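Entries read chain and fold; for instance:
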Amino acid sequence: MPIFSTYNKKYATGFDKIINRQPRENALYEISTLLTRYESNILQVPLEEIEAIARKHRIDLAKDFLTFRKDIFREYLRFCLKDYYLDWNEKEELRHLAGMLYLSNHDISNVLTSERKRLFKKKTRHAAKDGIITEREKAQLARLRHLLELDHGIAKRIKHEVYTQRYQAAVRSANADERVTDEEMKILEFIAGSMGLKRPHLDTATYRMFNRYRTYWLIENGRLPKYHPGIILNHGELAHFRGAIKWLERKLEKYTHEPRGYSHRIRYAHAYVFNHGQLEPAHIPEHEYEFVESGEVYITNQRLIFTGHSCNREVRLRDILNVFPYSNGVDVQRKDGRSPFLQFDEDVDLFSMTLNRVLMNVNH
């Protein structure tokens, strides 16, 4: 298989065709063809032929077609680096090739560094694929860095980048079913420890969903969060949710139907699995509901508590007949009195799951 890429020859058009002048790009075709002839011994490439091609096509090799010249050098460098090592002969060949292509030291250094980084990253990704970096793999990567003559600081940054990406992939996998279990937490901790990631970085969106899905699983398994609210609770009463809402109440005390819109009925639903993506907003007509006040709502193991600036409300858990979550709030059906609709801007999912869990505990 040829080392160098083959460039297609172009044909003259228009005025160039009339005066029998070839396109300047044909210099690329002729140079790559010449190098292919001498690829078994690059040191024997005659410089005068390279220069003759340049004169023929009116190009300045020190200025024109820099990308082409760098690509030619990169192709031969990749051929030499198949064993991840440049011996003395290969270095001489690369120096000779770079001279013929009129590459500056800056250009040569950039290509060399880029290829060394590419190879080191490739091997690092392979080592990190299973989520475990063994002592043997650490030693192999250290040896590879030495063979490639790659700067220690650059190698360290590459490893951190690759390991972080592998950890993020593991987190996305754990997030896939919208629940993060204890077993998945152990796996993630193991991956981070194996790769030396003390504080793994996650992008904001992934981190937010990871925490939410972890909380989902904890709630569903009875491990409810605990808050220290700024209100007085009864003896033995614990707060498990706190959030900002608008408290609305039905104008009729009799509960005739739930608000229109798709919802989940969660009362007594011991096998209930919350999927916020399936919820639709509830329609709350003004003639049926009265806005009471904005404030904070708490779920405790005994009550549903609302605190506003001018009024408070509470509903004992045992007085709740049913709960209907929507994407914009939760309709709470109570035995007596006016049933509230709790309008949320966010965290309606956590509220609904927490309320469902404490209701299950009350009825056991």
About this structure: Confidence is low (pLDDT under 50) at residues 261-272. The chain has eleven helices and seven strands.
